[in-house]
Amino acid sequence: MKKYTVAVVGATGVVGREMIQVLEARKFPVGTLVPLASERSAGSTVAFNGEHVEVKVLKADSFKGIDYALFSAGGSISKEFAPLAAQQGAVAIDNTSHFRMHEDVPLVVPEVNAHALKNHNGIIANPNCSTAQMVMALKPIHDAARIKRIVVSTYQSVSGAGKAAITELENQTRNSLSGISFENKVFTHPIAFNLIPQIDTFLDNGYTKEEMKLILETKKILGDDTIEVTATAVRVPVFIGHSESVNIQTEKKLTVAQVRALLKEMPGVTVLDDTSKHEYPTPREIAGQDNVFVGRIREDLSQPNGIELWCVGDNLRKGAALNAVQIAEALIAL
Fold first, then answer.
1. Which of these, 19, 101, 181, 197, is most buried using a 10 Å CB contact count?
2. Which of 120, 129, 142, 311 is catalytic?
3. Which of 98, 120, 142, 242 is catalytic?
4. Burial class (CB in 10 A: 0-12, 13-18, 19+), 45
């Protein structure tokens, strides 16, 4: 089997480390792993296949001889270095939002629109974590009955905001229980024992950037600009795992049984939906798992052809690292 030289940009971050773990767990044919990060991480190591691999400083010429470069170090880094990676012969798979809506950059969830990979110019975008898991559930429904409208409310874990956010939830929880005062550094309000109805900055239309990512990316991935989408994104005091309440209106009526059957056949989706046994997915239970889990499937009593469902996924896995590695796997298979 051919081996590939794989770079991970942002290798010491939460998602970067997860990417390396996923490469190992899925036995991706890595000949050489090249972890890249900023100067402050130089000299540190990451564990891969039983070895400690030294982290190198990201530079303009870091991608010579690289086959695949997985990016998760922030939009400004991707903006500067992903084109350089492509110029040096690598395929850049970018986990940031910078390239997602560029017309010449495919935005890909392999189980949903792998066909888009055939038309890349050296850069492929990984979708927003909440978008990635939602379109996994939407794809079979859209194919069967054409989705007209989506109303989604997300309940997103702090790991989506990085290591500092995880630490902030830990410290605030500890301090709250001990009666110790604290300051907010990552979030606009306390996150411990709280919900914050804001992820990213607000735009002139009243939506946040995170909400607009859900709206625009869903249409691009499903290849249908006529779908009406509205979103509310909420940060919750959960460490790992994004949850979503999704209301779907279809052109053709689907029964609950039909929706369950469609989702059970969708690769990468697990249906956990038996309310008589209190079976439905929760972020605590799905953390560390690759699949997207769907439950609470029911008809919307307020409108014709309406379906409600509850969708939960590990945002560091299918929402980020796993999807990026799956893109590389799909490229090898082309």
1. 19
2. 129
3. 242
4. middle
Helix (H/G/I), strand (E/B), else coil: 305: coil
**Nearest-angstrom CA–CA distance, 334 and 41:** 35
Among residues 254, 248, 259, the alpha carbon closest in space to that of 151 is found at: 248
Count structural domains, the chain: 2
pLDDT along the chain (334 residues), means of 10: 96 96 98 95 93 96 98 96 98 97 97 96 97 98 98 98 96 97 96 98 98 98 98 98 98 98 98 98 97 98 97 97 98 95
Do residues 180 and 243 share a domain? Answer: yes
CATH of the domain at 292: 3.30.360.10
Annotation marks residue 311 as catalytic: no
Judge contact between 322 and 22, C-beta under 8 A.
yes
Cα–Cα dist 2/4, whole Å: 7
Q: What is the pTM of this model?
A: 0.95
Which neighbouring-strand residues pair with 231?
Answer: 152
